[in-house]
Design goal:
Layout lengths: L9 H30 L9 H5 L3 H7 L3 H13 L7 H16 L5 H31 L3 H16 L10
Length: 167
């Protein structure tokens, strides 16, 4: 008697692998679309730290300058002998604030002190930037100032954010 060869099950394995890969790709696409939808949604989930802080009026004034003028402004701030806290000092202040928040014993007075120090540093930096901006704009010609005014006007007219207003 002759034996008939057993049919191979390769077709079943190939189909299982194909379905597995297809499922994985579908999950990747669903994740991408869900992430994009949540990112651009209104409310807390759609909030991004840069969305409100990055559109303050001070930033608009600096961005209204030409790239060359912004570079000169940055150089002016770096070169000046100012009593501004360094980046390392500001980072240490943030870390100290985080440590106070994480401590088992909440020290409201210490937290208030740290917040006041951060506010003072931010106001001091903002004042220095404003003074440097005024010095820079004072050196511009009428045409250059008009260009700055046009860019500033355009920036301030742009909508600040997408989605519904937050309470």
């Amino acid at each position: 008697m002759t034996q008939t060869p057993q049919p191979r099950r390769t077709r079943g394995r190939v189909l299982k692998w194909a379905f597995g890969i297809s499922l994985a790709l579908n999950l990747v696409f669903v994740g991408i679309f869900a992430g994009a939808a949540l990112r651009h949604a209104g409310g807390i989930r759609g909030w991004h730290p840069k969305s409100e802080a990055g559109h303050s009026s001070g930033v608009s004034f600096v961005r209204s300058l030409s790239q060359e003028d912004r570079r000169a402004l940055r150089d002016d701030l770096k070169d000046g002998e100012r009593d501004l806290p360094s980046r390392a000092e500001r980072r240490a202040l943030h870390q100290e604030l985080i440590a106070v928040l994480r401590a088992e014993q909440f020290d409201a007075a210490k937290l208030e002190q740290l917040l006041a120090a951060q506010t003072a540093a931010a106001e001091q930096f903002s004042g220095e930037v404003q003074a440097a901006w005024l010095r820079r704009v004072g050196t511009l010609s009428l045409q250059e100032r008009q260009e700055v005014a046009e860019r500033l006007d355009e920036m301030l007219k742009r909508p600040k954010r997408k989605g519904p207003k937050r309470p």
